[in-house]
Structure formats: C-alpha cells, structure tokens
Amino acid sequence: MSTVPAAESLRGTQRVRDWIGDRLLLILTLLAALASVVLMALIAWRVFRGASLSWSTFGLGFLTGTTWDATHDVYGAGTLLYGTAVTSVMALLIAGPLGIAIALFLTELAPRWIREVIGPLVEMLAAVPSVVLGLWGILVLGPFAAGHIEPWLNKTLGWIPLFSGDPSSSGVFIAGLILAIMVVPIVASICRELFLAVPHELEDGALALGATRWEMVRGVVLSSSKPGIGAALILGLGRALGEAIAVTQVIGSATAINVSLFAPGDTLASRIASQFQGAGTRLQTSSLFYLAAILLVIGLVTNLIAQLIVRRFEVQRAVG
Amino acid sequence: MASMEQTIDLSGGGRSRRRRLVNKLAEFVATLAALSAVAVLAIVVLSIAKRGAGELSWSFLTEPLPLFGMPGGGIAPLIVGSALLVAIATAIALPLGVLSALFLTEYASRRLASPIQLVFDLMSGLPSVILGVFVFGLLVYGHTQSGVAGGFALSIVMLPLIARSTQETLRLVPEAQRDGALALGASRWRVVTGVVLPSAVGGILTGTVLAIARAAGETAPLLFTTSIYLNSVQWGPRNALPNMPVQIFIWSESADPEDHKRAWATALVLLAFVLATSLLGRAALARSRRKLGQ
C-alpha cells in the first residue's frame, strides 16, 4: 500500500522537473537568440556613435570630400568611395561570368567524378585566408602582372584612360584581381545551388525539343535562375566591398583619385585597416569610424537586397 | 521524294552547324573557367608551399618571435596565441549559436524565426573589419588590447556560421523521432536534450570545425584588438595574444626580405591548418548528413 503514494509523489516531482526543464530550456534558447539580435544592434550603435564627432564636423559633405589630410585634420571619403567602387566593380566583372560559367560546368557539363573533385576545390579557394592571398598578391601576382599583364593591356587598350600609365606591382588593378579570386567561389557555389534546383523535366523538355545544351542552358537554366544569379552577384559584391586586409596589402596607398588602374589607390576598408591603429587625433579616429559606418550601411543594404531576392525566389520555387 | 528527303534531313544546313558550334564554344568556355579556378588555387598553394617550406624548421616552430631586425626567431607565440584566440571565440560562439539555432528550429513560430534568421544572415555578411572597429570601440578603447577582445571579435565571425550549420542539421532530424518521443510522454526539453541534440551532435561539431577554419584565418577582427604584443609565448587572455594572421600582415608590409621569408613560412603553417581543417570538416559534414538523411 505504501508504494502507491511513493509512485504518486515520484510522478509529481517528475512533473515539476519537466515543468522547470521546459521553461528553462525555452528561456535559455530565447535569451541566446535575443543576445545575437542585441549584438547586431550593438555593433551598429557603437560604430555610429564612434562616427558622431566626424559626423557633426563634416556632415554629409564627408561623402564627397576628397581630402584626407591628417596634418590639417580634414577628412573626406570621396577618393575611398571611388576606390571601393572601382575595385569591386572590376572584381565583379571578372568573377561574375567566371563564377556562373564554373557553376554551369559543375551542374550541366562535368561527369559526376569530375564534379566531385572540382566542386570542393573551388570552395577551397574561398577557404584561403585573405591575409595569405594578399601576401601572394603582393609578392607573386603583383610582380607578374606588372611584368606581363599590365604592359599588354597598356599596349592594346592604352587609349582608354583606365589602362594608361606605367605598370606597377601594387595598385588598384592588382586589388581588383585579388578581389576577383575571392568572389569567384562565392558566385560559383551559390549559382551551383540555383542551377541544381532547376527542375529536370524542364531541362529534358528543352533537349527533347532539339535544343543544343547551350540553348537549353540559356533558355531554361539561366533564365529561370535570373533573380538568384542577381542575388549571388550582389553577395559577391558585398564581399569585395568589405575586404580590408588583402586590399591593403596590394593596393599601395593614395590620397588622390588616380584615373589609371595601375596606380595606387585606397578603399574604405583598406583605409580603416591601414590607419585605425595609428590614428593621431580624435577626429581622425572618428572619421575612420565614419568610414566603418558607411561600410556598415553599404554592407547591410547589399545583404538585405540579396536576402530579400533569395527569400522571394525560394517561395516562388516552392509554390510553382 | 525530294520533299521527303528535305523533311528528314536532320543534320543539315549552316544554321544547325552554327548552333552546334556555339554549343561547343560555350562548353569550352565553361570548362576553361572551371580549370582556371582550380589552376589559381594550385598556383597559390604551390607558391606558398615552395617559398614557405624552405624556412620551416623545428626551431622556427618552437622559438619565440625574432627581435626587431634580428635574424632567427620562430613563431611559437603565434601558434599558441592563435589557438587561444580561436578557443575563446569557440567558447563564446558555440553555446550561443547552438542555443539560438535550437530556439529557431524547436520553439520559434515562423513569424518570429524569420526576422531573427535575417539578423544572422546580415551578421554573416558584415565586412570583418567592422567587427574589429566595433570591438575596439567596445572593449579596447580606454583600456588595452587583449586576447579576450580578439576572441570576442572572432566569435562574431563564427556565431552565424555555427547557428546556420546547427539549424541545417536540426532540420535533418526526422520529425517522426520528435513525435515518437512526445507520444511516449516525454516533455519538450527531454525530447530536445535526449533525442534531437544527440542525433545532431555530429553535424554541430563539424559545423563548428568549419567555423574554426574560417576564424583561424581572419585578420581584420584582430588588427585593432590584439596586434601589439610581446615576443614571447603568452598564455593569459588578458594580455594581447600574438597570432598568425596579424603577424603575416605585419611581415608582408615590411621592407625586410627576411620578414617576407617568415611571412611565407607562417602563411604555409596557417594555410595548411585552415585547408586541412576545412577539408576534414567538409568530409565529416557530408558523412553526418548522409547518416541523418537515411
């Protein structure tokens, strides 16, 4: 008879423990998720607060000002915005088509065993640390480009101002090349996922109608993945815009806009990386925070656009 | 008869030949693109291996950093420091990432999960130099650089990666397992800790290994948070910790060819670690996904 209440009370403590356990785990996981959201807000808040002194001094004129003069304590982001735009656009022009072509090769062309070798190798390229790639860029790629690629470009396309000027082993051109190497695996791996998701019936249908493989790719694979490819390119662009270390290593450093790609330059991220540590005045530090704030806004906007495209696209695929 | 021949002529005309030519050209370009990416990887890895291997020796791996302008020296402090920084980052990012992922997959409604998911996606897209600036402003400004600050900055790199890979693994745990356990009368937390997590632990660990591979090579988050350090091995995370990425950066900017040699050798050590870890992580990930998928 005495066992019954014991079992009862046992079940009771079990229930209490479950009640506590359930609440505890829920609260714990909820707190962790909230902490991550708070962390993101904290990042934005701290960066903007750091920029406030420079903001109140220069205002929006900071974006167009082309002087960056530490001795007179006058700062502007104009040349850096130009450098960032040129290097990332160049990277995207090279890496975009290349990444899409690689993804097509992996999904439509390569036999299975080649796909399983080359796919991971392309992703390994993304795993190379940027400081290592930058080291290679400044000591191997730079001299090679200055000796072979740049003189050739200068000879054939020298009438375009971008390709005028003397070849140099560090400069905007090398930075664009290094960024392209970083962006290729991003575009390739996202596009590969996209192309794999294209329904096989559509591809087979096009082929059965007598289309060549390329016509099938153009008419079915590429056209149905258009928004996704856009997102992949935007994500690649975001990576190129924000890269600090490798760009700092290879771009040289310039205080004015140089039209020639072979000349040194500077980007938002590379200026932060090269000057933040040694900033002499509070206004200079704050101006570097301002650069970080610009970078933060650009980074958030590009990523937001890409995520929105991806989400809408996924929904579309899921429905249709 | 003549008209019949025309209609069954499938190989025919210049137009068809042109189409096939364009097709061949497109296939050639795609193949070339894939080969060029592999070639770039091979060239980068080989030129680092070639230049770095000559400098590598037992003493290079075990001695303290060279004094300024002096010959010799080693990178023991960098290896220890990098390991400590990654350990600190993992200690912060792993619990936070796993718990967040649990909330997103096991508890949150779709409407609540979606914005939190977006925050993680945005966080993983942040330029890493911003993390360096942020942690400098938060922890270093007015204080000193420290291993804790550097590790914290790296943890922000790892957090979205771990959260995402954990979520993907959790989603692979069959719904039937959860339902079965719930039907047997198990409470929610019992199901999560006793059924869901044990099946997902392999995937979570390999996701963490991949995040470690990524964080170990990050320079920008450490550049303002732990870049002014002593030449000897540092064990205390309250001091700035010497580390491989920052030192490679410093040596690569130096004008001294001796420093370039050291940079190559250190780059080789770092690259070997990063590539080996991410290969290992990838292989393990594929295996654990297959196992869960069955």
Gyration radius over CA of chain B: 26 Å
Q: What's the CATH C level of the largest domain in chain B?
A: Mainly Alpha
CATH topology of the largest domain in chain A: MetI-like fold
* N-to-C SSE string of chain A, H for helix and E for strand: HHEEHHHHHHHHHH
The total count of helices of chain A amounts to 12
Structural domain count of chain B: 2
Give unreliable regions of chain A as ranges: none
Helix content of chain B: over 70%
The total beta strand count of chain A reads 2
Q: What is the CATH fold-level name of the largest domain in chain B?
A: MetI-like fold
Distance between the termini of chain B: 60 Å
Mean pLDDT of chain A: 86
CATH architecture of the largest domain in chain B: Orthogonal Bundle
Largest sheet properties of chain B:
none
Specify the structural class of chain A: mainly alpha
Morphology of chain A:
flat
β content of chain B, as a range? under 5%
Average the pLDDT over all residues of chain B and give the rounded result. 87
Chain pair forming the biggest interface: A-B, 88 and 88 residues
Count of folded domains of chain A: 2
Give a description of the structure:
- The complex is a heterodimer of chains A (320) and B (294).
- Chain A is mostly helical and 320 residues long.
- Chain A folds into two domains: 3-50; 57-319, Orthogonal Bundle (MetI-like fold).
- Chain A is 77% helix and 1% strand.
- Chain A has a two-stranded antiparallel sheet with strand order 1-2.
- In chain A, strand 1 and strand 2 (74-75) form a beta hairpin.
- The longest helix of chain A is centred in the N-terminal third of the chain and has 48 residues, at 3-50.
- The N and C termini of chain A lie far apart (65 Å).
- The model of chain A has no long low-confidence stretch (mean pLDDT 86).
- Chain B is mostly helical and 294 residues long.
- Chain B has two domains: 13-53; 58-293, Orthogonal Bundle (MetI-like fold).
- Chain B contains twelve helices and no strands.
- Chain B is globular and about 70 Å long.
- Chain B starts with a helix and ends with a helix.
- Chains A and B meet through helix 1, helix 3, helix 4, helix 5 and helix 6 of A and helix 2, helix 4, helix 5, helix 6 and helix 7 of B.
